[in-house]
Write a structure and sequence with these properties.
Shape: extended
Number of strands: 9
Helix content: 40-55%
Largest sheet: 5 strands, mixed
Structural class: alpha/beta
Distance between the termini: 82 Å
Number of helices: 13
Radius of gyration: 32 Å
Strand order of the largest sheet: 2-1-3-4-7
Strand content: 15-25%
Length: 393
């Protein structure tokens, strides 16, 4: 390796026994200076800056944070909501507090539990809350029923917030009914140029979680309260609204109010016909009502909606059977559909729905009781079908 700066230093070193770089004493001094200025000094500056930010600047920003042990009253019947990260929402914190208080007052007029909220004028990361799991742990340790937090990002002249929320405890009764698990996304990136939309979403989140608390009672009154809360959720956040309709339908189905259950699922489908869950639930409800042709049609729509789109097309596969002299053999068929929902889906390849539904029923022991009924209806409605639904013992 050549010496830096060429070459008086190089000349002074080359006749020395240790003249090869970096053994020359002159060059050793040079490399020490390099390490100090290029590596060690910047590292020291970074460490010092990090220390100052975490222990001075960020702590000064949290001076308005309220003490957690004094954040709520000792009334265990209250539903405690803690909100972080909203101090940068706009220039007026009093305006935020007023809007949130108005939301709480409107909920408390009909709520079965008194909702109490506090806005912590600091960032959630000061309490080491970075993920939903962190938030869950924080809720349990501090006896918070609902924690709402997020991160506000400025994009040009507009702002958006990545809003998240975590409950204590996790609401299993609202996320799982019968055999079907509903996965609810608890994160929503929304534009907050229109501030009122965010506050409406906050109200919907509180209603959703209050419904979960009522549902955990596992009583008729609890289910009716849950239905009431879900019925008040707006369309501000589409996934929350859609899921509220499905959960409402499941509760009504468990109460054997099947016609009302179908109506809730119709609302979900009208809201977004490209999402799959509502078709599955409507198919199972029609099956319970012994409306087999409707159950088969909805199951076909469920499979179409849940299929992956490839090159502007969805392909649905199903199996049926063909009889031979010495037995039967399975045959696989397919049908193509457009990616976005089309009303012609309902009338296209009706028999496919029976094939697809039978495949699902065979795989689930609790639905085997419907197997013969579906086969009988298929043969009645499609006597000339080339497909052969067979019931194997």
């Amino acid at each position: 390796m050549k010496c830096w700066g060429r070459t008086k230093l190089h000349k002074r070193c080359k006749n020395n026994i240790n003249g090869l770089w970096p053994f020359c004493s002159t060059h050793r001094h040079q490399i020490h200076i390099y390490l100090l200025t290029v590596l060690i000094l910047p590292m020291a500056i970074y460490i010092a800056g990090r220390y100052i930010y975490e222990n001075v600047i960020s702590q000064s920003g949290s001076s308005d944070c309220i003490e957690l042990e004094n954040i709520f009253s000792k009334n265990d019947n209250d539903y405690r909501v803690l909100i972080f990260d909203f101090m940068d929402f706009d220039s007026g914190n009093s305006n935020i507090e007023y809007k949130i208080q108005s939301i709480v007052e409107s909920i408390n007029q009909t709520s079965h539990k008194k909702v109490v909220t506090q806005i912590a004028n600091c960032n959630s990361n000061l309490y080491k809350i970075y993920t939903l799991n962190d938030a869950m742990v924080f809720c349990k340790e501090n006896k918070i029923d609902l924690l709402i937090f997020g991160e506000i990002e400025e994009i040009g002249e507009s702002k958006r917030i990545d809003l998240k929320y975590a409950s204590n405890p996790i609401i299993e009764s609202i996320n799982q009914r019968e055999q079907y698990i509903i996965e609810m996304n608890v994160s929503s990136i929304i534009d907050i140029t229109n501030n009122d939309g965010v506050f409406r979403l906050l109200k919907d989140i509180i209603l959703w979680n209050l419904g979960g608390i009522a549902g955990e009672l596992k009583t008729e009154d609890g289910n009716n309260l849950l239905l009431k809360y879900l019925g008040e959720i707006s369309t501000e956040y589409d996934s929350l609204y859609y899921t509220s309709k499905i959960v409402s339908s499941l509760i009504l189905k468990s109460q054997n109010k099947l016609d009302l259950s179908i109506l809730k699922l119709n609302e979900a489908i009208d809201f977004n016909p490209n999402w799959a869950s509502s078709y599955y639930e409507r198919s199972m409800t029609h099956l319970k009502m012994e409306e087999i042709d409707k159950a088969a049609s909805d199951f076909k729509l469920f499979k179409i909606a849940s299929a992956d789109c490839y090159k502007d097309e969805k392909q649905i596969f199903f199996s049926s059977y063909v009889k031979f002299e010495n037995g039967v053999t399975p045959v696989t068929y397919s049908q193509e559909f457009t990616c976005n929902y089309d009303s012609t889906y309902i009338s296209t390849a009706k028999e496919f729905g029976y094939c697809l539904l039978l495949q699902d029923l065979v795989d689930k022991e609790e639905n085997l009781k419907y197997l013969e009924m579906v086969i009988k209806d298929w043969k009645l409605k499609h006597p000339n079908s080339p497909y052969l639904p067979l019931n194997f013992e």
